[in-house]
Design brief:
The complex is a heterodimer.
Chain A (H helix, E strand, L loop, with lengths): L1 H7 L1 H5 L1 H26 L3 H22 L3 H25 L4 H23 L2 H9 L7 H30 L1 H6 L4 H28 L1 H10 L6 H25 L4 H19 L5 H6 L7
Chain B lengths: L5 E4 L7 E8 L2 E6 L4 E10 L2 E11 L4 E5 L6 H9 L6 E6 L8 E3 L13 H6 L3 H4 L7 H13 L15 H15 L3 E5 L7 H16 L3 E5 L3 H7 L2 E6 L1 E7 H4 L2 H12 L13
Parallel strand pairs in B: 6-10, 6-11, 8-9, 9-10
Antiparallel strand pairs in B: 1-3, 2-3, 4-5, 4-7, 11-12
Classes of the chains: A mainly alpha, B alpha/beta.
Chain lengths: ~290, ~280
């Protein structure tokens, strides 16, 4: 019993930085789970990735102007992410370039600017910090930021849920009934950028998207409706955060990659044994039903 | 003009009367000249190449018109322009007595993401968007309406099924239920019978004929000329430009069809800038 306690609960009981990290994981999961599900449904899985990277130059500019200041870096990252999302959206709307291609182009520009800024004006340690985050070093203000982003995300998502689902499912029809699908799309992109910014403090710009996409793709093997997908994804994200933190504490691993790797493991397990189209289940139930 | 018939209540204003009508059962049947949809010199282009070119045509209130023509003739483009989804480069599309957002539009099935996790009932309820909007309440009565619409298209008890799990024909029935529930005066159907078996086609055509009987205006993009001859009184033959419009038997003549094919094949990648009306 004590072994179990020492392993699973001890670190959080003994150290406040572990408790903070766990709360940060909870806040991140609440926002990211839903974002990931909609990114997958919109077939924008990789666009989430590109948006995460595009946050970097903004954060770097914030860092240059104000040093290691969370508000400055977050605001910078938010503005940069939004600019890339907006520019890509406009290009894909008014030119024949598809959305993924225009996102990829702008994110490369953005990432290059970011790396340039960080490497000329900061040390490599800073760059590593921005790229990989440090969930064990989140302070009160970051926690408040993450909790606020999660709350805003869930509230706004509840308000625009029907519009967003309609826009994902049949955008042409929504346009025909003058449903202003574009508004929901833009609001959704804003939410994605917000969650990226919230995640990069803890997991870094590279890893933040991992906690968004992996739970969402894993959920696909367990649930069949938008709300249940979001529920499973959020739960998966939080469980990954918890197990990742425990592993990183016990084996002295960097916490960001540990968390994302646990999410990756859950994804692989889901592919294998998930009740919806999981591989094993399909092998086990080869005999078809009566017609 | 003046070819189409509409039934109006006595005393109701329905435009300039071209020819007098017969009185019977309190209704006056007369031929009117103000159409439900009118296109005036409309050009819609993709990458400057016109998909429909200087098209002027009319659809009378209550008409049942098939839009036919070879591939790439601009049929879908025409329907999308009427639905307000495409903005013409030149000319204008006017709707009379119906707002753009009140038009019931059935997109091609291929444009819909059928792997999306949404229930059949929710798809049908999208047809009530005009009433519910993005935030309005969806009442029990509305769900009952959706069930009734599903039952009308022969899908009793399909409410909870996932849209992606039903067959292509059943999916098309679901989309027809969505049109049905919208209760619109102007119904636009873009290739409603592609990838659908003959029994489903027969059922759906019955529904279209019911809409026609209720005085709704129905415009459908179709490929099967036999089907059009049998069920659609009016036709519009399109080959980027108007080839013919009117009674189906006149429009679908071998000469017209041949002309339409020749016109649509004359695609010139290096065409000059068009400087005048066709």
């Amino acid at each position: 019993m004590t072994v179990l306690y020492d392993w699973l609960i001890g670190p959080f009981a003994d150290f406040s930085f572990m408790r903070r990290a766990l709360v940060a994981c909870l806040a991140l999961s609440l926002g990211s789970g839903a974002m990931g599900v909609f990114l997958v449904l919109r077939r924008m899985s990789l666009i989430g990735d590109t948006m995460a990277h595009s946050v970097l130059p903004g954060a770097a500019i914030g860092f240059m102007l104000a040093g290691v200041s969370l508000p400055a870096m977050s605001l910078g990252g938010f503005v940069a992410g939004l600019l890339v999302a907006l520019a890509s959206g406009l290009v894909s709307r008014f030119t024949p370039l598809k959305e993924d291609a225009s996102f990829a182009s702008f994110f490369m520009i953005s990432l290059a600017i970011g790396v340039l800024l960080v490497s000329t004006h900061g040390s490599t340690v800073d760059l590593m910090h921005v790229l990989f985050g440090s969930i064990l070093a989140v302070d009160d203000s970051s926690l408040i930021l993450m909790a606020s982003v999660a709350s805003v995300t869930l509230l706004l998502l509840a308000v625009i849920f029907r519009g967003l689902v309609a826009e994902c499912f049949d955008p042409l029809y929504l346009r025909a009934v003058k449903g202003r699908g574009g508004v929901y799309h833009v609001l959704f992109l804003v939410l994605v950028v917000l969650n990226m910014v919230s995640g990069f403090q803890a997991l870094g710009t590279l890893m933040a998207v991992g906690l968004m996409m992996l739970p969402a793709t894993a959920a696909r093997f367990w649930a069949r409706q938008v709300w249940s997908l979001i529920f499973v994804a959020t739960l998966t994200a939080f469980v990954s955060g918890y197990i990742g933190l425990v592993l990183s504490y016990q084996y002295n691993l960097p916490s960001g990659p540990a968390i994302v790797l646990v999410a990756g493991m859950i994804y692989l397990i889901s592919i294998a044994v998930g009740p919806r189209d999981g591989i094993f289940l399909r092998l086990l139930t080869r005999r078809h039903l009566r017609s | 003009m003046g070819r189409w018939k509409a039934i109006c209540y006595r005393g109701g204003s329905c435009g300039r009367v071209v020819a007098g009508g017969r009185v019977g059962f309190g209704l006056v049947e007369m031929t009117v000249s103000v159409p439900m949809v009118s296109l005036r010199d409309v050009t819609v282009a993709y990458d400057r190449h016109p998909a429909i070119h200087h098209l002027s045509c009319f659809f009378a209130k209550g008409c049942l018109t098939a839009v036919v023509g070879p591939n790439g003739a601009g049929k879908s483009t025409l329907v999308k322009s009427i639905a307000g989804l495409l903005r013409p480069l030149e000319g204008h599309v006017r709707l009379n007595g119906v707002e753009h957002r009140d038009v019931a539009y059935l997109p091609q099935l291929a444009n819909i993401d059928d792997s999306f996790p949404i229930s059949v009932r929710d798809v049908v309820l999208l047809g009530l968007w005009r009433r519910t909007g993005a935030f309005g309440e969806i009442s029990k009565a509305m769900c009952d309406e959706a069930s009734k619409a599903l039952s009308t298209v022969g899908l009793d008890g399909f409410e909870e099924r996932a849209f992606g799990s039903v067959s292509a024909g059943q999916r098309q029935r679901v989309l027809f239920a969505r049109v049905l529930i919208a209760d619109s005066q102007l119904i636009l159907l873009d290739e409603p019978f592609s990838a659908v078996d003959s029994r489903t086609v027969a059922d759906l055509i019955r529904l279209i004929e019911r809409w026609h009987g209720e005085g709704r205006t129905v415009i459908a993009v179709l490929h099967d000329h036999e089907q059009v001859r049998r069920h659609f009184p009016d036709s519009l033959l399109l080959a980027r430009e108007l080839v013919a419009q009117g009674a189906t038997s006149d429009v679908l003549s071998p000469a017209n069809l041949l002309r339409a094919r020749a016109m649509s094949e004359a695609w010139d990648e290096d065409a000059d800038v068009c400087r005048g009306a066709a």
